[in-house]
Amino acid sequence: MSTRSNEHHHVRWSVVAFTLHLLMQLAGLVACVSEDTAGKGNVVFEAGGGKALQEGFPYNEGGAEFAFVDGWSLQFTKYVVVIGDVEMSDPASGSVRGAFAGPVALDLKQDQGDTQELATLTDLPATRQDVAFSFLRATPSVENRNVEIADLELMIQEGWSYLVEGVASKDGTEVEFFFGLGLPTRYYQCVNGKDQTQGVAVQANKTIGVYIYAHAVHLFWDTLASGDEDLRFDAFAAVAGEDGRVTNDELALQDLTDLRDANGNPLRDQDGHRVFYNDGGMLPPDSLTLETFINYAARAGVHFNGVGLCFTERLD
User: Fold this and answer.
1) Could you give the CA distance from residue 181 to residue 160 in angstroms, rounded to a whole number?
2) Residues 295, 287: Cα–Cα separation, whole Å
3) Would you say 158 and 213 are in contact if contact means Cβ atoms under 8 Å apart?
């Protein structure tokens, strides 16, 4: 091959190498530019307890009726939750992109809508991000949005994350309930209930809304396992004190291994069969009470954007 030919090939490969190098630089530049200029967006976090909280039982949703199989109707009057440590993070690196520490105490029943605003995270990268939040015990540092002072003081004293109050009625009989739940729990890597994807896609130059769903219906299901659940209140009403009120102390008296009615007889359903609560083997064997059952049900009843599920970690 002649020197000219060699020089020609050398020049040609030099041009190719330079072009490849330039393309690689441009590709890197484009990647950096697209990442830096993808835009920013905002996310408004809201919290709610679902249609049951606002309308009581029975209620209709999605063509289905949600009603107590033992004939009770029920209305909530208070539904207080304590939420904090809201974070959005990069799914790959785990780097936190936005956070709201809180904690905030919200009475979800007091608002006329389905949800209440918890916090707004601003200037988030317009990418898909993981979502995490915590239900926490009430402490003196909690921000009180709309909770009665006496109720919040009681929650702080007892270390509750929830305070639930309402009244149930059946055949002219009314039973009040007022109890608290101490459920410090971290919810993380949440699946979006709207589209079954992980987390949420932040949109450039937009504010989107997402919500934490403390699903009130879970409190009265008779199973911790999925599927085939029924709503029951007889076991609650059976332990109401002389004042016709069910509190934590009364709930702790109802033994799940031997459910009893108000007269001390075995608790039976409308067909005469003994009532059975299925804990799915989740409850501690030394604490098989209705109070413990409700605590586990409430912890499992927290969702993201509808019925999206999260990984959970108990915080104490």
Assistant:
1) 5
2) 11
3) no
In angstroms, the CA 299 to CA 279 distance is: 13
pLDDT tens, position by position, 87-139? 999 999 999 999 999 999 999 998 666 889 999 999 999 999 999 999 999 99
Contact 135, 185 (CB under 8 A): yes
Q: Are 276 and 235 in contact (CB under 8 A)?
A: no
Whole-number pLDDT of residue 38: 74
Kindly report the pTM of this predicted structure: 0.86
Query: How far apart, in Å, are the Cα atoms of 46 and each of 43, 118, 143, 212, 236?
Result: 10, 5, 15, 6, 30
Question: Per-residue pLDDT averaged across 8-30, rounded?
Answer: 36
Question: Pairing mode, if any, of strands 173-181 and 104-107?
Answer: unpaired
According to DSSP, residue 209 is labeled: E
Locate 91 and state its tokens: 């799914």
Q: Cis bond leading into 58, ω under 30°?
A: yes
Residue 231 and residue 217 in contact, taking contact as beta carbons nearer than 8 Å: yes
Alpha carbon 106 to chain centroid, angstroms: 14
3-state DSSP helix/strand/coil % of the chain, to nearest 5:
25, 35, 40
Nearest to 114 by CA among 216, 199, 198, 253: 216
| C-beta atoms surrounding 56 within 10 Å | 17
Which residue intervals of the chain are DSSP H helices? 3-36, 51-55, 149-158, 234-237, 248-251, 290-300
